[in-house]
Amino acid sequence: MSLLDCVDHGDVDGAVAALAELGPTERRALLPELKRRRKEMAVAWWEHAGPRSLALLVAGLGCNTAPSSAFSWANGIGSAAGIVVWQSGAALTVVDRQSPQWQAELLHRIADRRPGVWFGDEYPAVERIAHAAGEPVPVTEGVVLAWQRHHDWPSATHEHRREMLQRLIQAPSTPSLVLGLFDVAGTGDRLGEAWRGAILGLVEAGVVPRDEILDRCLARLGRGGRPGDQRGFQRLLEQLAPTPEEIAARVRAYLPLLDGLSPVAGLGQAQLAEADAAGLLEPEQLAEASATVSFRSEKKLLRAQLAWLDRSGRRSPAWAAVAVRGAVEVFGQSDVDLQERALKVAARHLDAAGSALVPELQAATELLGPAQAARAAELFGLAAPAATDGSGPYVELLPPLPQRVPLGESLDGPVAVAQELAAVLAGDPSVAAFERTLDGLVRESFRDGEALRVALKPVLGERPWATELNHWSPQHWWIALVAAAAMGDLPAVRAHAMLQGQGPLRTDHQERFRAVTAARVEEAAALVVFGTVPFLLATPSHADGTLEAAVLVERLAALEAVDGRLGAVDLGQALLRVLPTDDRAVLEAAGRLRTVKGEAVAQWIAEGGLPGQRTDRVPARPGARPMVTQPGLAPEHQALLHPVLRRALGPLVDPEGRPILAVGDIVTPYALAVLPCHREELAARLGYAIIDNARSTANRSPLLLQLVEAGGPAGPAVHLTVACTLGAASAPDRTAAVDALLLLAAQGALDPARLGTDLAEAVRSGVAQLNKVALALRQAADSGAHATVFSVLRAALPGLLAPEPIRGVPELFAVATDCAAHCGATGPLPEITSLAAQRGSSRLLKEARALQAVLTASS
Predict the structure, then answer these.
(1) Rounded to whole angstroms, how far apart are CA atoms 46 and 553?
(2) Which residues partner with 616 through β-bridges?
(3) Residue by residue, what is the 3-state secondary structure of 309-370?
(4) Of 231, 307, 585, 804, most Cβ neighbours within 10 A?
(5) Dist. CA 776–CA 797, nearest whole Å
(6) Does residue 782 lie in a domain region?
(7) Is there a contact between 781 and 819 (Cβ–Cβ < 8 Å)?
């Protein structure tokens, strides 16, 4: 068979044989036909996957006489058909027939691919082509990772590992590739026991120098990286077990480890201390190590550093001075136990260090709490800490209140609408883009439908949006249904069904806020089909979804003037978005509306919009998460709202009075824009989703702050959501909770007693992690909101101490002590007073006494 027949029949071996019979000119002449077949297969590659694709790949690889075009051909077809190109024996046979120069260029193109496009086990092909071309194996990122995977054997037995080591020793490419492991990102994840044993074996066999491996291992750890990637190199350094002399020769390489991940810093600290114990370090090197460690937060590292300083300080006055200065650097830590340890180390070595350090100690005592500062004055013979004279009153630092961002003018013309639609379909997730596009489609279809169709055609293409979209489609794609209606692709019978709630975007048991967006889009599409609405009422005035009352009244008056039709969902959404106003001109204009709906809207605006629902906290039960309930809409507020909106605001308590846990809703910007003036109702229905996302480190953090920025009262639901998220697992979520806390305080909407009580319940129920709460509140305090944080902790601490103190509560004591000292808070707490009076030396009692000392300092 000819080469083309072999391709058509999927005969891979035949294609390899046919290529052998053709010269370079004959092979090049077949390329146009091969490209035509490739184009045909690309239309529906899944129908041609398998032997036909591989035969076409092999044929094109041989007929492209330039290595660059051969490489592009093979990878282009292989990626589409799911073929691991350089694992194919047929493809490699074709490569074997080429000249060494051709093979060398292909080798480097294969090796230079980014790691993400390497599939299967392609390293043997690289080694085979390199051997044929007489070239060394290239040491690139992709090659190193492929080589590591090729030899990896995580569950290998001792015998298998010995065989692996022998293969590596015999391979000429091993020395350069082993060193490449230390330069390429991602190799540490696979540096398991088998690989570490192999590297140690290669060092012992003299294949790679021990000094080189040790230097590169330290350099890799010093660069930092992900915990998983660093772990393999950390364990390798442990197994290399450098001698004190080797450590001392590499002190400059060890010092960056002290600033790395906690396990890496601990190992670096331990090995440096080992070299110091052998008398091989200089005082200046210990001082530099201490300066780095003293700024870390891990107590284990700090305790170890103080112990190291204590041991070294006994040698001579020079070492004693280093010990005192190193201990003083720990004074800035908030942990009372660490402060006391540092005081003892400094006191123990001060005599040997000399009186020249006393001024430094005097200045450093300002970092200590009141009790520790007094203790330092006693130990070092310093002047007693000066009392505050009140000349510099404490100033609370809170963030400025956010300003609403205008949505902007309506899109001007069909081309602008088409451009905005293209951005939304491409993935712009913002509510502003969605709303501007929705409004523009309705306006332009009413104004000049033909011009809009011309502008939309290149954006929509031939894709059948009207029949393809459903409730599973990405939410921002739904807007294409309105565009399809503008194109005339939506039959009137389907549009009528949509107005009855039977459209493709709706389904039973749909999330309540997603259902609102679906109903709005379907209604807008139907109204475009019927051509009865010149614009939408609910298009917001601001990017957060809020609507100015004056704008709504103006739109209603314009609709009355042209006898336009009102969309039920559109009207209801507009009412839930309208901002309260006391502007007499707006109220008078609303009073001039003459239709039945217009008069009802005027009354709605005059009464200040939808009143907030009463929120009740469900008493906490052991092992149960804190909950809130709301009764739902009052009957008099339901008439103007479409059923989908009434469902969104439905009760959170069943007819028997049992609370209904609001679960299943997904937190999105679209959901928050449904109720932009009612944050308490949003928090009651979406708060649990935000909390659960934070617990699973899903990082929906910006949406919590957006929720709190919404208007309306901040009641139990808002406070409970913020309290639970302060103990989130992920740092971005905690930061968002801190921002929300500070914003509530800046608005004057924070109830510290409520938030503190919720915080204690959230910790006791396991929804919030106490150690994470301490980190979050420390972050809030460091921003300058010491009084706000202390007011919350004053309410939270009693619930965390009774009936039994929760593990980790000393961290909160330390935060409370620092905040109280900064803002001048006084007035003892009975629970703290009782705890501080107990005998003992635990950290809990020490922190309680420190807080008690601050709170009673004025008396």
Answers:
(1) 57
(2) 629
(3) HHHHCCCCHHHHHHHHHHHHHHHHCCCHHHHHHHHHHHHHHHHHHCHHHHHHHHHHHHHCCH
(4) 231
(5) 15
(6) yes
(7) yes
What is the average pLDDT score of the chain?
Answer: 89
485 is in which domain, residue-wise?
414-606
Whether 628 is covered by a domain: the verdict is yes
CA distance 526 to 519: 10
* Choice between 654 and 456, residue whose per-residue pLDDT is larger: 456
E strand or H helix at 91, and its extent? helix 89-96
- Considering the chain, what percentage of its residues have pLDDT values greater than 90? 62
CA dihedral 51, 55, 57, 61 (to 10 degrees): 160
Contacts of 393 (CB under 8 A, 6+ apart): none
Torsion of CA 518, 524, 529, 531, to 10 degrees: 170
Measured between alpha carbons, how far is 820 from 851 in angstroms, rounded to an integer? Answer: 8
- Residue 128 within any structural domain of the chain: no
Question: Would you call 400 exposed, middle or buried from its count of C-beta atoms within 10 A (0-12, 13-18, 19+)?
Answer: exposed
Query: Looking at the DSSP assignment, which residues form a beta bridge with residue 547?
Result: 578
- Using a CB cutoff of 8 Å and minimum separation of 24, what contacts does 70-75 make? 70/106, 71/106, 71/109, 71/110, 75/113, 75/117
Burial 689-721 (b: 16+ CB within 10 A, else e): bbbbbbbeebebbebbbbbbbbbbebbbbbbbb
Copy the structure tokens of residue 298: 């891990």
Domain presence at residue 762: yes
Residue 506 in 3-state DSSP? coil
Handedness of CA 175, 177, 178, 179 (dihedral sign): positive
Predicted TM-score (pTM) of this structure:
0.74
Distance CA 131, CA 550 (A): 79
> How many structural domains does the chain have?
3
Distance from chain centroid for Cα 156: 36
The pLDDT of 694-705, averaged and rounded, is 67
Q: What percent of the chain has pLDDT over 70?
A: 94
DSSP state of 542: B
